[in-house]
Amino acid sequence: xxxxxxxxxxxxxxxxxxxxxxxxxxxxxxxxxxxxxxxxxxxxxxxxxxxxxxxxxxxxxxxxxxxxxxxxxxxxxxxxxxxxxxxxxxxxxxxxxxxxxxxxxxxxxxxxxxxxxxxxxxxxxxxxxxxxxxxxxxxxxxxxxxxxxxxxxxxxxxxxxxxxxxxxxxxxxxxxxxxxxxxxxxxxxxxxxxxxxxxxxxxxxxxxxxxxxxxxxxxxxxxxxxxxxxxxxxxxxxxxxxxxxxxxxxxxxxxxxxxxxxxxxxxxxxxxxxxxxxxxxxxxxxxxxxxxxxxxxxxxxxxxxxxxxxxxxxxxxxxxxxxxxxxxxxxxxxxxxxxxxxxxxxxxxxxxxxxxxxxxxxxxxxxxxxxxxxxxxxxxxxxxxxxxxxxxxxxxxxxxxxxxxxxxxxxxxxxxxxxxxxxxxxxxxxxxxxxxxxxxxxxxxxxxxxxxxxxxxx
Length: 458
Prior knowledge:
Elements: H1 3-10, E1 12-22, E2 31-32, E3 37-39, E4 46-50, E5 56-60, E6 62-68, H2 69-72, E7 86-91, E8 108-113, E9 119-121, E10 137-146, H3 153-156, E11 166-168, E12 171-173, H4 177-197, H5 203-207, H6 229-238, E13 245-248, E14 254-259, E15 261-270, E16 274-275, H7 285-297, E17 308-317, E18 323-324, E19 327-336, H8 339-358, E20 362-371, H9 379-397, E21 402-406, H10 411-415, E22 420-423, E23 428-429, E24 437-439, H11 442-455
Parallel strand pairs: 13-22, 14-21
Antiparallel strand pairs: 1-10, 2-6, 2-10, 3-9, 4-5, 6-7, 7-8, 11-12, 12-24, 14-22, 15-19, 15-20, 16-18, 17-19, 23-24
């Protein structure tokens, strides 16, 4: 779907209202202000709230407008409104509540009176001030297609253009072509070979008499908030039967042999909110959240026991520039190779949250991701697996890969004590961008590495 087609699909019919001129009274006519047409048993609605001058009392709601549904019908192209009767709107215009707080319930009322013949003009309540008796004027109506504002497009269209594939100067360009498509293809080629040769006379000779069984899995959930759900399921199903684990991810120039653990939280702050001018001085959820973030970034990460980091990656909140934010959220994580450092970072994080709560902040937490560090792995078996990976990559590329820690599918089996390694299947750059590419010549090298890791021997 093109951007133009997507935009057109978002369009919705709207009924435009314009003040036309002063109106003379007509029973049941569409109009703004004046006296409302209501049934004889109608009770004028009231609302108890605090006005701008901080006076709290029960006030009659102001009559805003009424609409003859039969007159609306010709403009209601999607038939969302009744086609008969009268719609009437009331709002308390002294307090002018926004309605965000549940305590504001009743500050606005909408009525639908089905039987037009039972209506008559109501007198204003005796205690209604003149300022809140709006003059009667005619409303002119029309229909027009409406679209989301440009401010909404960044959320509606994260990236819906066709992925740009091109091949030039020995490179294949396309988002995802390397991470992790090239690695997936290497796995699938190995699976195709196995399917064509398993059970053949040369199969046992290739695998050896004591070779363990093979399970090839194309899983999901490794990126972002997927929380490694694919490999968690693999380990849940096969568990202690797993002799070793190898995942194909990223490029040929490095091998991941140890796990960087992480814990991720959604932090939500709520306040009463209000109008930026009329309610100035009330707690702002964004300001409260910013204060929490400032305190988190003042923390010193441990320098011993492996690298430890933390990050606020996403902040959302508020509704408009003239509104005191009633809610704000952030996504926060910390990472480390050390379980002790992970525990320390969690304690420091929770201390900051508890301090904010003690100062009156309404803060809630949700754990949205947990990637464990490595567990008690047999070091000799782990070393043998890693050396096999190094030989496979060096043999295919002629270059010895670097060993480093990382957050990959290996986190789960390593945490369970299963020897694990992460190996790449391509050479390229630009992962997670629209400019990602792989060197075409490196793909064959990646296939060789995958075949050696799956079918080779220690």
